[in-house]
Amino acid sequence: MSVWLRELASLPEDVPAVFAERFNSGDAALLAEVYEESAVLAVGAGEAVSGAALHAANGRLRELGVPIVVRPRQTYRNGDLALLIVDWVVEGPGRDGAAVRFGGTATDVVRRGADGRWRYVIDNPFGPRPDALPGGGGVRG
Known about the structure:
Protein name: DUF4440 domain-containing protein
Distance between the termini: 32 Å
InterPro entries: DUF4440 (IPR027843), NTF2-like_dom_sf (IPR032710)
Helix content: 10-25%
Radius of gyration: 14 Å
Largest sheet: 6 strands, mixed
Domain DUF4440: 20-119
Pfam families: DUF4440
CATH class: Alpha Beta
Structural class: alpha+beta
């Protein structure tokens, strides 16, 4: 059975919803499409990863088996760039049955591509609080 997922965002304020839908689908390839090829993910104070390391960090969160819920707060657009402020939470029973709950307020930068679709250029899930994951240390492995 196939699951219908929305296309990549045609408006910057829709990028978080597309991200959440694809994250929750469990399909790593679909989630990867939400990022530009050279995108970076902030994983700790002053530390960012890209490429395979970015997708691996997202994979570690997806492996918890808990859905993400996003609530966009603000969008600031300038031409083909936009800054997104987004509250998000990953909450529910994990695969092992233990309660999982963490979240933050993301400060993300997205860019409109030549195809008219918006993708992450900078994904900063915890904004100024890179230690917000349980145990600290951002989303590193």
